[in-house]
């Protein structure tokens, strides 16, 4: 009888110990996983973002996989799934945070100069790899993926917020009226780049940014000096 009681007591102790160990693991995992990726490791997070854009540039959006990103970044795929549940969510974060697509907001002292500098940066992005392959693959895929399209809207909202100081300064200098629409202005300029480079696939003249900005700010009725044919120069 004593042996049976001892056995039952031992079984209960073992069950309690197993439960306590399982609870400890759950609490430890929850505490660790509740931290944002930046606190888990900024360097590792950046490696994941860089790998995401590299795989996208190499294989396109259809070839982008969490497993492929994990392999290139040197991390476990569960680390990625912990923070980004899909490749669309991961790509959306990478587009905003990765320095490859980062922009330096110009401050030339004039709206015209700022927009020309900003458009020149966009032209470089769309015409030179790997930025050109990343931009075309991501934006092209967004038209077929509602989830990626939602993340793309976040990307553009973030980009417009960063560009907003250009227009605030222009309004303060009296170059724009207070009711000016920064989004419409940027859409007109960015759309010109997208149509020329991606859809028409035509070469871009050296003065493209200057002429495009002039057309948007001054209107089509203002005479614009035509660009000279390549190699001929202007006198």
CATH topology of the largest domain, which one?
Answer: Tetracycline Repressor, domain 2
Which residues sit in consecutive blocks of at least 5 with pLDDT less than 50?
Answer: 15-36, 228-235
Basic shape: elongated
What is the percentage of strand-forming residues? under 5%
One letter per element, helices H and strands E, the order comes to HHHHHHHHHH
Helix content: over 70%
Helix count equals 10
- The end-to-end span amounts to 112 Å
Rounded mean pLDDT is 82
Task: Give a quick precis of the structure.
By secondary structure, the chain is an all-alpha fold. It has helices at 2-33, 37-59, 66-73, 77-83, 87-97, 111-127, 131-142, 146-173, 182-199, 208-218.
Describe this protein's structure.
By secondary structure, this protein is mostly helical. It has two domains: 36-94, Orthogonal Bundle (Arc Repressor Mutant, subunit A); 103-218, Tetracycline Repressor, domain 2 (Orthogonal Bundle), CATH 1.10.357. 71% of the residues lie in helices and 0% in strands. The chain has helices at residues 2-33, 37-59, 66-73, 77-83, 87-97, 111-127, 131-142, 146-173, 182-199, 208-218. Helix 6 (111-127) crosses helix 7 (131-142) and helix 7 (131-142) packs across helix 8 (146-173). Mean pLDDT is 82; it is low at 15-36 and 228-235.
